[in-house]
Amino acid sequence: MANTASARKRIRQTATRTARNQARKSRMRTFIKKVETAIAGGDRSVAVEALRAAQPEMQRAAGKGVVHANTVARKLSRLSARIKALPAG
Q: What angle do CA 62, 34, 79 make, to 5 degrees?
């Protein structure tokens, strides 16, 4: 158990940051899931809008260090490629 005041503070800070990071990552996953659902539905315009909403959320997570920047770039690239493969309409 934490013995010093500084150690107790570090535990509090870690708990706060962990909760915040989990929320960010969960929010990012939710946005990605909306894009996946739109792609599965086959509606290109809805998928494009979902990706447009998801992109800043994903980049924000990378900027805050929750996920690696390359991971976000890879996911965005793959999602946009799948959207491009959809028939226009």
A: 60
Q: What tokens does 73 get? A: 């770039």
Spatial CB neighbours of 54, under 8 Å, sequence gap ≥ 6:
28, 31, 32, 34, 35, 79
Predicted confidence at residue 89, as pLDDT, reads 63
For tokens 């150690």, name the residue: 7
Q: What is the Cα–Cα distance from 57 to 74, expressed in whole angstroms?
A: 15
Please report the pLDDT score of residue 48 as a whole number. Answer: 96
- What is d(CA 26, CA 77) in angstroms, rounded to the nearest whole number? 20
Sign of CA dihedral 8, 2, 64, 84: negative
Chain centre to alpha carbon of residue 35: 12
For residue 68, the Cα-to-chain-centroid distance in whole angstroms is 11
Distance between first and last Cα of the chain: 60
